[in-house]
């Protein structure tokens, strides 16, 4: 750095040599903090404001809130573990919460399995060469590009329980049934209906990621294997799957965090019903904390209930995503 | 379990499988999209009285209704405003931060990178309740500016993360030459890194646009008045009590879905590579 201030700028670039008071403290400080310390923190300041002020602070705040009884506009009272106690053993909110645990698990696991299978099939398909492939890829990814709320609305319309809902029209025409099916009104059917809608919108994301993984596998591996006499299933098991395993795991973890926490589809399709059949926990948090009684403390407690699980996922995801850090 | 087959048989089976796959996924993908378009073009009578897969008559009355009799255009304008501001801000903030993390030497560099990834992964469903308090205290309830602030919570980490991934792949030598020549850091960033990172900036812009345009939860929690509503929230507002006017709602849905779909189609190539580059390093 001190050298630079003595070199005269070469054609074009202009930089006045920076005068520096070189004291022993500033040398030691710079040595400890890194030579670009001041510049770095200037560049990082806006990002730091967002991360600390808009994410870090609310996150800590959520934890604090979960130990409080707080209504909007009213001062907070510290209640220790009372909120969590109510969730685990209480009635009303507690019962709803315990039900939502099972529903959330069902919802997440079912969606993820379907997304993985369908996403992989779609990726394998799109990895083949056929006329119009670029166009087909574009079309297949549209469900992911449209706003989730709009996708949800469309499926709500398709699931309409009257004879004008698309699925009922088709079901009646095909003779599968003579009665109208309440896709969203039937207690056992509703969760599956929501899952299908979510899978429809999210499969393209999986396909995109897995396709990128597939394309990274060198074709020589397949050719050599084919020469060696391996059939299509063996090639898939021994070359394809290991080749995409990293991106598959990353996609799985990312998608799980997002799916488990997404309320858009459930909100618009069923609002959590019928009779809490589709009440996943983030929606319950919304209902308790914002929409209904506005018990912010309880809402925060519900939101945080699953967070330890996500924390584990976040930990492993971060490790993988930063894997090539110097 | 090896299946004995001639080369030609294998190829024909493969073509058949590919065709089947295309058909299946084609129907799977297009059916809802088809239904949006068809419903938006049917007359109200046709929608409610004649359940048919193919419309017998085409009308634009739903579009007319949405565009002239509802605040739809206002909602679209609000969405554009919030989205564009958020996108520009996150591009600027993310680029600066990413440059610092990848190019500057300072203590704690790795922790900052980790913090960026972790905050990117913290779900909105956890933050929206305490955020309620933050926005309330800032006096930004029921205000688009509040949304702009909140949307930064997912666009900035993503933008930073994308740019980090990209900057890491740009060789040091180019800047080092400029720095030795006497360039300041800001100039090195502006004149050398940025032009090289245009594809990454494009991906960041697209994702920020799409994420902000499609956002619903925060809008639902913070916005109440029509004048501040974004498109996704406004769509719900078209519902009258328990009645969903499906014609207008599908018309509004199609219109509302156009910007992100157009943006996505225009930039398809970058999106795929950007997504995977952002999550898998190198």
Q: How many domains, in number, for the residues of chain A?
A: 2
The CATH class designation of the largest domain in chain B is Mainly Alpha
What is the C-alpha radius of gyration of chain B, as a whole number of Å?
24 Å
Number of domains of chain B: 2
Proportion of strand residues of chain B: under 5%
Query: Which structural class should the secondary elements of chain A be placed in?
Result: mainly alpha
Mean pLDDT across every amino acid position of chain A? 86
Biggest sheet architecture of chain A: 2 strands, antiparallel
Looking at the overall shape, the CATH architecture of the largest domain in chain A is Orthogonal Bundle
- Biggest sheet architecture of chain B: none
Give the fraction of residues assigned to helices of chain B.
Answer: over 70%
Structure description:
The complex is a heterodimer of chains A (326) and B (282). With 326 residues, chain A is an all-alpha fold. Chain A folds into two domains: 23-66; 82-321, MetI-like (MetI-like fold). Chain A contains 15 helices and two strands. Chain A has helices at 24-33, 37-66, 82-89, 93-127, 133-140, 142-145, 148-158, 166-174, 189-215, 219-227, 232-260, 264-269, 281-291, 296-305, 307-321; strands at 68-69, 77-78. In chain A, β1 and β2 (77-78) form a beta hairpin. Chain A is flat and about 75 Å long. Chain A starts with 23 loop residues before the first helix and ends in a 5-residue tail after the last helix. In chain B, α1 (7-41) packs across α13 (246-266). The longest helix of chain B has 35 residues, at 7-41. Chain B has helices at residues 7-41, 44-49, 61-69, 72-103, 109-121, 124-137, 144-168, 172-180, 185-196, 198-214, 217-222, 231-237, 246-266, 268-279. Chain B folds into two domains: 7-59, no CATH class; 71-279, MetI-like (MetI-like fold, Orthogonal Bundle). The model of chain B has no long low-confidence stretch (mean pLDDT 86). Chain B contains 14 helices and no strands. With 282 residues, chain B is mostly helical.
